[in-house]
Design a protein that fits this description.
Helices cover 79% and strands 0% of the residues. The protein is built from six helices and no strands.
Length: 126
């Protein structure tokens, strides 16, 4: 789970562009970040898509949510997400948990992700 949280931490730092609006709903943003992160993980582990394809799909979603995201930031984000996704999905114990207990692992993942992401986004708005 530590590698997964590293993925989330790297991801949420990258997703700080979603927090640009000081009046934005932190809970909604956190949910978006964690949903995208979980989707990437399951796309690789369960659907056996390439990490590159899942990151490209995530970047496209992020751009649709934050149209002002410039290409340099998107490329930097892509590199960070790809590195973190590969680290998370190569953790054999975590990958096994995702495959064998997807719902239970999703619940645990989301609890940790939402808490960490909400905290990070709150700090970025100060």
């Amino acid at each position: 789970m530590k590698k997964v949280m590293l993925f989330v931490l790297c991801g949420m730092l990258s997703f700080s562009t979603l927090a640009a609006n000081k009046n934005a709903d932190i809970t909604k943003q956190s949910q978006t970040v964690c949903d995208l992160t979980w989707e990437q993980i399951t796309d690789v582990i369960i659907k056996q898509q390439t990490p590159e394809a899942t990151v490209d799909k995530a970047i496209a979603k992020i751009k649709s949510l934050s149209p002002s995201l410039n290409e340099d930031s998107a490329n930097q984000m892509k590199g960070q997400l790809l590195t973190s996704l590969k680290a998370s999905t190569s953790d054999e114990a975590f990958a096994s948990a995702v495959k064998n207990d997807t719902q239970g692992t999703h619940q645990k993942f989301m609890e940790g992700c939402l808490a960490a992401t909400t905290q990070a986004l709150s700090n970025s708005k100060q």
